[in-house]
Amino acid sequence: MAKILKIYPDNPQENLVNEVIKTLQNGGLIIYPSDTIYALGCNIFDIKAMEKLAQLKKVKLEKSQFSIICNDLSHLSDFTRPIDTSVFRFLKSHLPGPFTFILDANKSLPLAYKNHKTIGIRVPDHPIPQLIVEKLGHPIASTSIKDDDEIIEYSTDPELIAEKYDHLVDIVIDSGYGDNVASTIVDLTSGEPEIIRQGKGII
C-alpha cells in the first residue's frame, strides 16, 4: 500500500521529505505535486525503478520519454550537449516554470536513457520537487499521471490519486489539490522555440 505523506509547500516537514528521499534511494516510486499536475517520479539512476515506472506507463523503457526534473539549471551539462548562450538565456528567463524543454542529449545520460537523442528538462516552480531534488543530490525521472480518458479529479485530488495508485507506488505526497493543466512542451533542438504541446506555460 502506498504511504500518504502530507507535505505542504509553505512548511515542508524535514522528516517527511527525508522519508521520500530514502524511498527514492531504495528504488521506490513516488507521486508528487508540481506547478502543473501531480506526477510520478523515481530515482533516475536506479534502472529497476525506471523499469517499474515504464511498466506503470505501459511503455518499453527504451522507448519511454520520461522528463528529467531538476531544481535549477546547474544539471544541464550532465544531460545535454553544450547549448548556445541565447538558448541558455531563454531557459533562464522561463525557469522555474510550467515548461518541459526538449534539448539535444549528450552521451553521459543515465543507463535508462541510453541512445536517446533528445531529453526533456523540467524545473517546476514548486518548492516540494525542488527540495526533493536538492536533498537527493541529483534530478529525478518524471512522467504525468494524467490520461486523456480519465476524469479530471484523478489528476487533481491527491486522495483519489492515492486510491488509484495504492498498490502501484510507494509514496503519495499530498500537497492539496493540484492543477489540471500539464506543462507546455517546447522543442529547443533547432535553437528556436517550437511549441510541441501547449499547456499551462505561455511563451
TrEMBL record:
What are the recorded GO MF terms, alphabetically? double-stranded RNA binding
List the InterPro entries hit by this protein, alphabetically: DHBP_synth_RibB-like_a/b_dom, Sua5-like_dom, SUA5_domain
Taxonomy, superkingdom: Bacteria
Question: Residues in domain YrdC-like?
Answer: 14-201
Q: Which Pfam families match?
A: Sua5_yciO_yrdC (PF01300)
PANTHER family the record matches: DHBP SYNTHASE RIBB-LIKE ALPHA/BETA DOMAIN-CONTAINING PROTEIN (PTHR42828), THREONYLCARBAMOYL-AMP SYNTHASE (PTHR42828:SF3)
Designated name of the protein: tRNA threonylcarbamoyl adenosine modification protein, Sua5/YciO/YrdC/YwlC family
Q: What is the lineage of its organism?
A: Bacteria, Pseudomonadati, Bacteroidota, Flavobacteriia, Flavobacteriales
